[in-house]
Design goal:
The chain has helices spanning 19-29, 48-54, 65-74, 110-119, 133-140, 150-158, 198-210, 240-252, and strands spanning 15-16, 37-40, 58-61, 81-82, 99-104, 124-132, 159-167, 172-173, 180-187. The chain is an alpha/beta fold. It is elongated, with a radius of gyration of 21 Å. The structure holds S-adenosylmethionine (SAM). The site of S-adenosylmethionine (SAM) has 24 residues, from strand 1. S-adenosylmethionine binds at residues 11-16, 40-44, 46-47, 61-64, 67, 85-87, 104, 106, 109.
């Protein structure tokens, strides 16, 4: 099967070949008849087959024209594939109902995909992704951990994150150099921020993580920094709630000047 298409490294084409892992993923995602599913990068259809057997409400987004043709031929046109870069596709134009996103993601666009999910959080039910293990460890990590960063905060503010399994490079063709993890993100019912605070807080988080080794007071412009709790610490030492408290204190006093 894999001989038909020469994998392109630039598109992160490492196809899942281990059937045991494929079945495990099918069990985890547990697609139902009335689910609306967007699959990112269906490739040669490792996970697609099971989704199509469960629901008719399926749209795949595949950048490689060779693979969208392959899938259309394989499923005799009974499949809807958008042959486009996922980052250019407007998800809200695909389904009017809340949808689930599934994808074994090309690792070089993981951050952009997470940001896209954040932007689309009110329309999505959940997302199940396979990404590089280190990346998943990073978005799940807690304050005090050296990989806790901007993306961990962004992701944890909006989503509940759950990791199911780590997957060996041996499960793919060709074998990547890194381990992968399969995990889900589900939009939180209630987040710690008010709608009106979101944009300002995300900019604040970006600023305070900009220079990781610097204390927060040296990453932003504030006069009278001795008035504020935690401003002498580095961003990665603060819990998300402490970051929010500091952001609110600075904002309320009119002391926060953002770039
Ligand atoms: N889902 C298949 C599997 O599990 O075997 C393929 C996974 S492979 C890691 C990533 C897939 O995403 C490839 O089919 C690749 O062509 C596609 N892809 C890469 N960049 C993309 C992009 N920007 N938009 C949509 N699809 C993309």
């Amino acid at each position: 099967m894999f001989e038909e298409i020469n994998p392109k490294k630039s598109l992160g084409q490492n196809f899942l070949k281990n059937k045991v892992t494929v079945n495990l993923i099918n069990d985890i995602i547990n697609i139902r008849e009335n689910d609306f599913v967007i699959e990112i990068g269906p490739g040669m259809g490792a996970i697609t087959e099971n989704i199509l057997n469960k629901t008719k409400n399926y749209v795949g987004i595949e950048k490689d024209p060779r693979l969208s043709e392959y899938l259309e031929k394989k499923y005799k046109k009974n499949i809807q594939i958008i042959n486009e870069d996922v980052l250019k596709v407007e998800f809200s134009n695909i389904f009017k109902k809340k949808y689930r996103i599934i994808g074994n993601i090309p690792y070089n666009i993981s951050t952009e995909i997470i940001i896209k999910c954040i932007e689309n959080r009110t329309n999505m039910q959940s997302a199940f992704f396979m990404m590089q293990k280190e990346f998943v460890d990073r978005i799940q990590s807690q304050f005090g951990n050296k990989v806790f960063g901007r993306l961990s905060v962004f992701c944890q503010i909006f989503f509940d994150i759950y990791k199911y399994i780590d997957i060996s490079p041996k499960d793919f063709y060709p074998e990547p150099k890194v381990y992968s993890s399969f995990f889900s993100i589900t939009p939180k019912n209630k987040i710690l921020l008010k709608e009106s605070e979101i944009e300002g807080f995300l900019n604040f988080v970006k600023d305070i993580f900009e220079k990781r080794r610097k204390k927060i007071k040296n990453c932003i412009s504030v006069k009278n920094d001795n008035l504020y709790d935690n401003i002498d610490k580095r961003a990665e030492q603060l819990s998300i709630q402490e970051m929010i408290n500091l952001y609110r204190d600075l904002k309320n006093d009119g002391k926060l000047i953002q770039n």
